[in-house]
Amino acid sequence: MLDNRVQPKLIIHGGAGSSLKGKEAVAAVRRSLYNVIEEVYDLLLTGADARDAVVLGCQLLEDDPRFNAGTGSVLQSDGQIRMSAALMEGNSQRFSGVINVGRVQNPINLAKFLQDSADRVLSEQGAAELLRELNAPVYNPLTDIRLQEWMLERQDNFDKTMAGVVAERELVKASEPGRGTIGVVALDSQGCLAAGTSTGGKGFERIGRVSDCAMPAGNYATTKAAVSCTGIGEDIIDECLAARVVVRVTDGLSLAEAMQRSFTEASHNGRDFGAISIDATGAIAWGKTSQVLLSAYHDGDRIGDTLEWQGDELTNFVV
What percent of the chain is predicted at pLDDT more than 70? Predict the structure, then answer.
């Protein structure tokens, strides 16, 4: 055990949106999320810092083609993949990210590199130049399911406004909307917080559209709290959700109170999203206005998840 240290805490998400189809889909997503939780929490138990744990978690989720980030990212209206990612470490309160980058396996790695850069947020052209400077291998994140999804939508003249939150053949056939993003929030054994978020976008969007995850609206961390958001990016931006929750905690609200107030306001405004968070005391919180939030956590004693949580409450909390 880690003597005289904080008990690490961890929560991750794989998107928010409509319900998963059937017990098999729930079980498959649960396995994916739990595998990430186990590997990242083991790293935290070695004394690793929150930023490294968050980066590892994002890498693992980006590499899982089930989720809309990295491998398995959705296609935009022109059939191209453009991904965004952000990272923020609470002690330095330093935000970094990339916007609409392509041909890279793990966009979160670029966000990590930019943590120590004078220019910490790069858009498409700048991110591509950074990839060349780093001599990063060219990588194609396209999967057959996402290509099929785009081709089916193209036949209907892009009537659908969102790609599937999870890449499943059942969802492609059903043509139901979803909102895909992955995110990780961690508290390490030194009491430091960090948050990371990565996405392939909402799918079929106008070229050049920027997601919330590349902004403090969707990914934010200080010494007080850290938040990662998922859902309709424009709704998250309009609420400035991640930063709003953290500011409320800084101003004296508990994490539960900050999340409850923010999600109550969001519900009244007709927003569609979810969020995960941890504060400096180790409290874990999540919330959603969408139908389902694909999230799992380790509270220091056990692993749990929100996959079948579809009650009327706006938020649910774990301490």
Answer: 87
